[in-house]
Design goal:
- This protein has helices at residues 3-16, 20-27, 46-59, 77-87, 110-115, 139-148, 164-171, 182-189, 215-218, 221-230, 240-243, 256-260, 264-272, 282-292, 331-344, and strands at residues 33-39, 63-70, 95-97, 137-138, 155-159, 190-196, 235-238, 247-248, 279-280, 299-300, 304-308, 314-318, 324-328.
- By secondary structure, it is of the alpha/beta class.
- It has a single domain, classed as Ribonucleoside hydrolase-like (Inosine-uridine Nucleoside N-ribohydrolase, Chain A).
- The structure holds calcium ion.
């Protein structure tokens, strides 16, 4: 193979890896996107799969993962985040944890199960970098410290759990970290919020009982209501009806790689439900859109407002100068998305 062909292949690979959001970066200085990940790690296993994608984007230099925040107060959540960042060699990423978070009744807590796994000698199966339960700071403090030092309009927040921390951030007052209120900090530093939240299948129905409350909204309705009403940047959400159409296949986590060496994402998947099972890809779709953009994967709704009612139902109201949108897909896009997920997950440790 000639050098010219090799160079051509490399250039093609770089171009093909650029979604529309990444195009400008690829053509210019290729600056990585700045991301903060907000997760209820430990509830559904899609959070672990979504974080696995972020670890790989970070390793490839596509993103700068500024921090990871857990809005699940139960044990195991920040421990699992700690062991996964450690597994991928990125223990320096700050980890925040919710204060006064919503209660979750765990039937299964895969995060805690994986954090407590041991090897044949009784030692922890997966190394960790932090003592105690793995977190460094309360989430609101983590957000304020990160945002206060970032360039204006530079940070994308991906939120795939409850809105508790984001609502608390909006309510935070100026302090010794920054004189700005939380809402002012977000308005100045955040470019976009991408969430997995809401359900719009029966959006046209006036009766709110026909709009199914989605889990991330219903666990902290007041917080979701505040964020969709008051968050001062554009929001794009991947709704319930999208991720449930695209199911991650069980056999993707039980491959030659994971059989040879325990992988924390595969172990989480196997601990969550009896194998084999396929699982909807709710949180993964938010990560994919946030980092790679919509081209080939998603169709965006019109702009508008998103209202949250008293029981957690969500409704989209189109408005030409609105700043909220939601994602939709057709069957071709669904196939493209699934192909990308299976290609990426679980990531190989290097
Ligand atoms: Ca989640």
């Amino acid at each position: 193979m000639t050098l010219r062909i090799l160079i051509g292949m490399a250039a093609a690979a770089i171009l093909s890896s650029c979604g529309n959001k990444q195009q400008a970066a690829c053509e210019g200085a290729a600056a990585p996107m700045k991301i903060i990940f907000e997760t209820d790690m430990g509830n559904d296993v899609d959070d672990a799969l979504a974080m696995d994608m972020l670890m790989q984007y970070a390793r490839e230099g596509k993103i700068d993962l500024l921090g990871i925040s857990s809005n699940k107060r139960n044990d195991g959540s920040t421990e699992y985040i700690d062991l996964l960042t450690t597994w991928y060699g990125m223990p320096q990423i700050p980890i925040g944890k919710v204060v006064d978070g919503a209660k979750c009744d765990d039937a299964v807590n895969y995060a805690l199960a994986v954090a407590q796994m041991t090897d044949a000698d009784g030692k922890p199966l997966f190394a960790r970098s932090h003592d105690n339960d793995g977190f460094v700071v309360p989430s609101v403090e983590m957000y304020r410290r990160i945002l206060s030092v970032q360039p204006d309009s530079s940070v994308t927040v991906i939120s795939v759990g409850f809105s508790t921390n984001l609502a608390q951030l909006l309510d935070s007052k100026g302090d010794d970290i920054s004189p700005l209120t939380g809402k002012e900090l977000v308005a100045k530093k955040v470019k976009e919020l991408v969430t997995m939240a809401g359900e719009f299948t029966n959006n046209g129905e006036a009766d709110s009982l026909k709009r199914m409350p989605e889990y991330n909204v219903v666990r902290d309705i007041a917080a979701a209501k505040k964020v969709f009403a008051e968050w001062p940047t554009p929001i794009v959400t991947s709704p319930f009806e999208l991720g449930i159409k695209i199911c991650f296949p069980a056999d993707a986590v039980e491959n030659e790689l994971t059989r040879a060496t325990p992988h924390p994402v595969s172990e989480a998947y196997k601990a969550y439900l009896p194998m084999p099972y396929d699982r909807p890809t709710w949180d993964l779709t938010s990560v994919l859109y946030a980092v790679e953009g919509s081209e080939g994967y998603f169709t965006l709704s019109d702009t508008g407002d998103i209202e949250v009612d008293g029981r957690g139902g969500t409704r989209f109201i189109a408005r030409s100068d609105g700043t909220r949108r939601y994602l939709m897909t057709d069957s071709v896009q669904d196939a493209n998305i699934l192909r990308r997920f299976v290609e990426m997950i679980p990531g190989e440790k290097k």
